[in-house]
Amino acid sequence: MPSEMITIKSPDGDFPAYRAAPEGGGPGPALVVIQEIFGINLVMRDICDDLAGQGYVAICPDLFWRLEPGVELTDKTKAEWDKAFDLMSRFDPDTGVKDIAETIAVARRDKQSTGKAGAIGYCLGGLLAYLTACRTDAEACVGYYGVNIPKFLDEAKNISGHLMLHVAGKDQFVDAKAQKAMHDGLDDNPHVTLHDYPEQDHAFARVGGEHFDARAADLANTRTRAFLQTHLG
Q1: In the chain, what are the domain boundaries?
Q2: Report field, pTM of the whole predicted structure over 0.90
Q3: How far is residue 221's CA from residue 47's CA, in Å, rounded to a whole number?
Q4: Is 70 exceeded by the pLDDT of residue 42?
Q5: pLDDT exceeding 90 applies to what percent of the chain?
Q6: CA dist., res. 227 & res. 162, Å (int)
């Protein structure tokens, strides 16, 4: 898929983003791909490329730019994990959502965009996908194994688009109490759909990751594709 690094201009400064678009220049809905704690790494770029192959304009912004621009880590070494957790501990979700909102605005204006826009995020990005649904006008958002969502459940009433969350039943970072809180706070919301994967751990859809499960990942991704097709076209 045609891909490039672009620059997103915001009131707080400029930051880079990875952009992948459908071949042939045809129009498609836009999706902001929200990073894990590892930055715009190969996993995120591959997700963008895959979405572009499905007909989306996929843009993954560098959300750590205020802390350290250009972070690109893997999940293969302790040193990288330590750095990723340090970045997450210093990251401000509120400014992250502002950067996502700026990226959505750019995505809507993209020369190949239909004007419809959504977001899809993983881990830290799963939380940010939830907050994007609460705080922006994105038509559709998807979060995979989002962390710390219960802290923000009071914002769910603000969701005007559609939200799908994939919940790992044995998530080492989201315990059973937090999962119950998510269901209690969201199950009755007509804008929200939760899917549980009872036997899966965090990052079960991260290709090449320690907890990757091909069957569960395929099920979640199939649900995501149908959801996005329904709400973004």
Answers
A1: 3-232
A2: yes
A3: 11
A4: yes
A5: 97
A6: 9
Residue with tokens 């204006």: 109
Give the Cα separation of 35 and 85 in Å (integer).
14
Residue 171 annotated in active site? yes
User: In terms of CATH architecture, what is 3-232?
Assistant: 3-Layer(aba) Sandwich (3.40)
Q: How confident is the model at residue 168 (pLDDT cuts 50, 70, 90)?
A: very high
- The active-site residue out of 162, 166, 202, 211 is 202
Spatial separation of the C-alpha atoms in residues 154 and 169, rounded to whole Å = 23
Among 171, 201, 213, 231, the active-site one is: 171
Residue recorded with tokens 């965009």: 113
* Catalytic site includes residue 218: no
Write down the pLDDT at residue 26.
80
Structure tokens at 97: 């959502």
- Cα dihedral 218→222→45→58 (10° resolution): 180
What Å distances lie between residue 190 and 147, 162, 179, 228, CA to CA?
A: 22, 9, 18, 16
| Backbone torsion region of residue 70, taken as left when φ is above 0, otherwise alpha when ψ lies between -120 and 50, otherwise beta | left
Contact of 15 with 62, CB cutoff 8 Å: yes
Task: Look at phi and psi of residue 55 and say left if phi exceeds 0, alpha if psi is from -120 to 50, else beta.
Answer: left
pLDDT at 1: 65
Q: At what angle do helices 93-109 and 124-135 cross, to 10 degrees?
A: 70
